[in-house]
Design a protein that fits this description.
- By secondary structure, this protein is an all-alpha fold.
- Helices cover about 75% and strands about 0% of the residues.
Length: about 170
């Protein structure tokens, strides 16, 4: 089933040139747009310093968790599994597919906004995270399970960091 989902999205990007260009933007560049938008929102909506610090800790913990898992768990990317597949962008490591680091960071940004009560921003950033993950599948560098795993791990990371900080500060 995962292969079928993968091929559906990959074929959309490779058979329709416009969608291929959109997929490349989503997979490679949208995360940076989200990070810049996050910084802008922090300034525009006057997030307090404590919130910003916790948000940054959550984002880096999510990114660090993805790097740790990739170093411990060998997971071939789709273009390794299917030798006839040509990814639309270059991936750094061929056997470090799970989880999608781009997606986990985007999810962490969205979830941390929800946790601090910025629900409307959280929704916008969650849609952005979904688009990042979809783009990573469309360009042929991630499996759908890599993206789904990134969503789960991103949520859990932010939740655990927030609980740990709450426990630490209540002492």
């Amino acid at each position: 089933m995962e292969e079928g989902i993968f091929w559906f999205f990959y074929n959309l990007a490779t058979r329709l040139p416009f969608l291929g260009a959109v997929a490349i933007f989503l997979a490679r560049d949208l995360l940076w747009v989200l990070i810049i938008a996050f910084v802008f929102c922090a300034r525009y909506f006057h997030f307090n310093q404590r919130e910003v610090l916790i948000m940054i800790i959550c984002i880096f913990c999510a990114w660090g968790l993805s790097i740790l898992i990739k170093s411990l768990y060998i997971s071939p990317r789709p273009f390794i599994f299917f030798t006839n597949l040509e990814p639309l962008i270059k991936a750094r490591e061929a056997f470090a597919s799970f989880p999608s680091s781009h997606t986990i960071v985007a999810v962490a940004i969205a979830i941390v906004l929800f946790f601090f009560g910025y629900s409307y921003l959280g929704i916008i950033f969650a849609v952005g995270a979904l688009l990042v993950g979809l783009g990573r599948i469309m360009v042929g560098v991630h499996w759908p399970s890599d993206v789904l795993g990134a969503f789960v791990l991103g949520f859990l990371t932010v939740w655990i960091v927030k609980l740990a900080l709450k426990f630490y500060t209540s002492r």
